[in-house]
Design goal:
By secondary structure, the protein is of the alpha/beta class. Helix content is about 45%, strand content about 20%. The longest helix has 23 residues.
């Protein structure tokens, strides 16, 4: 009998790669999406993650659920944004966990969270994810369901959303800026490594059960190393330009002041900029130790593989 794996957000970047992996591995894949699944080989349940009827249909018959759907890649600034963030990341996740736990044989539930949920969490995105994590692990501790949480850092790969794609867009103009000489360090996670790590959790549930696992490529790089590697494989070989930090911070402070005066009509940019120039280093040692996992590519190799075929 073929096992069924349910993947929420199956049309998202991570969801598409997971769908392809598990279909190729012989699973029956049931994707929860807002539109028709991008991969016709699987089964689609079309609807909103916040709809109880949709989620009930999705959960039924699943042996495993991977929950990737989230309010992500957009900053929750207005009250409406914050409400939507919590409704999707926390409330809908909790409802989905409850539906899974109520099944005659509850599926293994893998929750894709975020490294932002580690330590002190203040942003709506991080808090909503951490709240959902805590709910899942409370049920795991009560033996009502088996599952785990994975906390990927910034996922990259060809056409991946996020800050590295901004580097590609800037490269079209022939240059990419870095600040403070690009000394800040970043942990990254290649999409192929992310899929392999999640697959290990699914195929080794007795090891993964109850764990909160940070996922990275295993090493961190400076922003200069990251940007230089990407620029070196792009056809137009854009320049990497170092820009003084303080004038930019000052201008963005003024801009955010204008944003407040506009009532949110203008987006706030300073926090996004500070994230770009700040360090974000995380350890995947626990995952590597539990699963004896060695990423097949170094981060430099993976960056080159991911962006060599991108057109600038």
């Amino acid at each position: 009998m073929t096992s069924t794996i349910g993947i929420t957000g199956a049309n998202g970047y991570l969801g598409r790669h997971l769908t392809n992996h598990f279909l190729n591995a012989g699973w029956h894949v049931k994707g929860l999406t807002r539109t028709q699944s991008a991969d016709s080989r699987g089964e689609s349940v079309i609807g909103d993650i916040r709809e109880a009827e949709t989620c009930t249909k999705f959960v039924q018959g699943c042996h495993v659920i991977i929950h990737t759907a989230a309010y992500v890649h957009r900053v929750a600034q207005t009250e409406a944004d914050i409400a939507a963030c919590f409704a999707i990341n926390r409330d809908a996740t909790i409802a989905l966990i409850d539906l899974a736990a109520a099944q005659p044989t509850p599926p293994f539930f893998l929750f894709v969270s975020t490294v932002a949920a580690i330590g002190e969490t203040t942003s709506p995105y991080a808090v909503s994810k951490r709240d959902a994590e805590d709910y899942l692990h409370n049920l795991i501790d009560q033996n009502k369901i088996q599952g785990c949480t994975v906390r990927p850092c910034m996922i990259y790969g060809t056409n991946a959303p996020g800050n590295l794609q901004s580097v590609i867009r800037l490269a079209k103009f022939g240059f990419v800026p870095i600040f403070d000489k690009g000394k800040n360090r970043k942990s990254l996670l290649f999409i192929e490594h992310a899929v392999a790590a999640i697959a290990l959790c699914i195929t080794n549930p007795e090891v993964a059960n109850g764990e909160r696992l940070t996922l990275t490529d295993g090493v961190s790089l400076t922003l200069r190393e990251i940007v230089t590697t990407i620029c070196n494989v792009l056809p137009n070989k854009p320049y990497v330009i170092s820009i003084p930090l303080m004038p930019v911070k000052y201008m963005l402070t003024l801009w955010d002041g204008l944003s407040r005066l506009s009532g949110g009509k203008l987006p706030k940019l300073k926090q996004t900029f500070l994230t770009y120039i700040g360090s974000a280093v995380f350890s995947a040692d626990k995952f590597i130790r539990l699963f004896n996992f060695q990423p097949p590519y170094t981060t430099i190799q993976a960056l080159s593989k991911a962006y060599t075929i991108d057109e600038p």
